[in-house]
User: What shape does this take?
Amino acid sequence: MRQRKLGLVLVKTVSSITNYVVLAVLLLCLVFGFYALLDSSMVYEKTSTREYETYRPDADNALTFEDLKAINSDTIGWINVYGTNVDYPIVQGEDNDKYIDHTAKNTYSSAGAIFLDYRNKPDLSDFNSIIYGHHMAEHAMCGDLDQFQNSTFFDEHEYGSLYLDRREGQKEYGMTFFAFLETEGSNSELFSPGLEGTEARENYLNYIQDHAMYWRNVSVTPEDRIVLLYTCTENLTNGRHVLVAKVTNEVHADSFAKEEDSRFHVDPYSVWKQFTKVPIIFWSLGLLTVLLVIRYFYERHLRKKRSKIES
Assistant: This one.
């Protein structure tokens, strides 16, 4: 009889320890899931246009473009693709690696920054300048460039602007988008900045026209300056989307501009979208954790009730 009681006590003890261990593991998984959600949200918040809008050179803000340069001396300009969220400062490093995982404020972030190829001149005086940016969800960084896959979107979004940190002369320029391409990241014919020579430049423009998904009839010559906005795409293995613009002295007005409250605000739909990105396994573990907690307190309540009855 005594051995039987000891056996029951041992079984209950092992069962109780097992429940606690399982509960602890599930709680850790739940915490990890919400941490991943929070971390993702913070990354997108750091890459939001709201993070930089107070430094925009053409806006009447408390902070200025010069303040951003004081934070990071690699800041060389600003790019705005009208009608999209591509509205960010441009930086240029000593190589093309740094700003893959550093922001325009020179802080670490997997979102990186919009940056000019290190082989280009910082005033974009080369024939062809290449500007890179990560393709991200939530319309962050160059995430909106894939919208140009739609022919209607390409037709309706013709202009943008560039602000360049030049010591003398004109600082603001227009961009007229005339081509959109889908290619591979290893395409050395396209991703060769600062081409010299009339023939090489003509061949380059012909290559763009021959391989463009969409082309707009804009007069572009080897004496002009063009900019290529470059980002990743999932459509191809090692795929890239490239939006090509002619740099012009004429700056067109942004017909898509809207007056918005620049203060931080919570978009319920965006919050919901973030929650839906949490893998179903974490939601299942969370539910199981809640059930175990309920079970634990229910059994505790029953034990207390039995103790009162027995006493």
About this structure: The domain at 74-248 is CATH 2.40.260.10 (Sortase; Chain: A;). The chain is about 35% helix and 20% strand. The first strand starts at residue 75 and ends at 81. The longest helix spans residues 2-47.
